[in-house]
Amino acid sequence: MKKLLISCLTLLIVQSFAFAQPGWNMTQLWSMGPWWDRSVDVEVSGSYAYVADYQAGLWVVDISTPSSPLEVGHLDSRETAWGLAVRGNYVYLADGFAGLRIIDVSTPSDPVEVSTFVFTSQAYDVTLDPIQDVAYVAAWGAGVRIINVANSAVPVEIGYHDTPNECNDIEISGTTAFVADGWEGMRVLNIANPAAPTVLSVVPFPGTRTVDVELSGTLAYVAARGTVFVVDISVPSSPVLIDSCDMQANPSEIALSGSYAFVSDYWGVIRVLDLSDPQHPQHELYVGTNGSASAIALSGDVAYVAASDGGLCIADISEPLAPAVVSMVGTHVNGQDIAVQGNIAIVANRQLGWRVLDITNPSSPVVLTNVPALEPSSGCDFVGSYAYIASEGSGLLIYDMTNPSAPSLIGQFDSPGPATDVTVVGSTAYLCDGPGGLHILDVTTPSSPTLIASYDTPDWAQDVEIRGTYAYVCDGYADLRILDISNPAVPVEVSFVGGDNAQAIAFKDNYAFVATGHVVQVIDITDPLLPFQATTFSISWTRDLTLVGNFLFVAASEHGLHAYDVSNPLAVTEVGNYTASGVACRHGCR
Prior knowledge:
Largest sheet: 4 strands, antiparallel
Radius of gyration: 26 Å
Strand content: over 45%
Helix content: under 10%
Strand order of the largest sheet: 1-2-3-4
Number of helices: 1
Number of strands: 52
Shape: elongated
């Protein structure tokens, strides 16, 4: 199985270097958008979406055609862009320790900062008073800061309230503010006099951290770790907890539309709640996104999700119980593994799910579909007309790829551990299962995979490759384990080679290249019973590697992608490198 590293971009880089010459440098051929960082908040105004993108700053996206969004403007962050609000021609950006930045977006392609107001703690989110020219800033450890923004060029602090915990979010209704204050719960403030807010009440949610509040009439929906709480706020001084809905996840933000609530969460999933009985919400379904779904904004029948590493995810919610992702802006999907067959590539994505690409034109791949999942997809293989997905929470998933645009799940093997990789040879699948070791499965009938045997490796099985009658398992800190699988029903370990942290492997002739910690080991496997380390070469924190011809491509954590000429495995030379924002990683950074 070809493992072409980090993401779709890497696939294209590798293809461009299949016939590379020493001294060349790698270049980006294609992306689905800019190299964004971590999209954490989004607001929609008119035909534009405004995205707070962590250390990458503010992005302005033209969404006049939701199926073909276009990034038109950008302004770098000074520190960490956590949240934003939009009014008229101005964006109010909560930029961490850089404070509240007021940005003129009257020309969307050229955002211009007009002023800044700095606090003693991080500006984490901002809410605008619906009537007055006043901004309420959730300033984390500095509580609620109240800023008069009538003159955008000269913002003035007119009041504050020092909340006891971590001020995450503020919602306003008339002269009352509802504050998500971390571990303290929801704090209710009287803001009739913004210069001197007073506490009306506090609603604790013991054992959980409050991150977001959304108001609907006399009800407040409060997102906290693992739960959405429903609170009656008809009497703000005496709020009453009515009900709660267990999300079995980590909600980040709530958005309301009609009789439904759309809840984004840090696992990269939009969860839909039925509010036909507003006091007793019911959990209906999940929709996967590419990246941690940090925030969500609604505009008509469209949801805009800040999908962390996935950028901006745009979904059609005209049928709330059958939402569909219509487009993505941004390319960093935290890809974990890739497999190619003909003109079709499949990419396993750690931020829940996997995608199918048409790579007929390598410089302009086309996304055929994104397949959502409830758990991270860490490994994949593509054999015949079937895709095999290693899902960290669901084991081995087998999809019929007869129609690549609409893969259908036909089989599953629910392994006990978090499945991290899969390699299929003939009718046999070899599944790495983290602490569960290696599982060998009969997939003759893909709709009904059956376990042939298991081998409990000492540490954390992360990657497996088959060569002849031997399985080579990268087993984390237990190094490279070599198993005799001539009888798949009775796998036998015949040798191992020590290292630092074996994560991935590739072969050339009688040598195995193993990514281990801060080096790549070159191991002579002429005799699998007596392997030995022939040499090594250093690179900062290797994560994954693959071989194309005489060139070895190595993902090196924050140091990007490196290419080595391995025509002589005992005298490896580096011939190129490509460094992009983000971390080159396989199966997650442990």
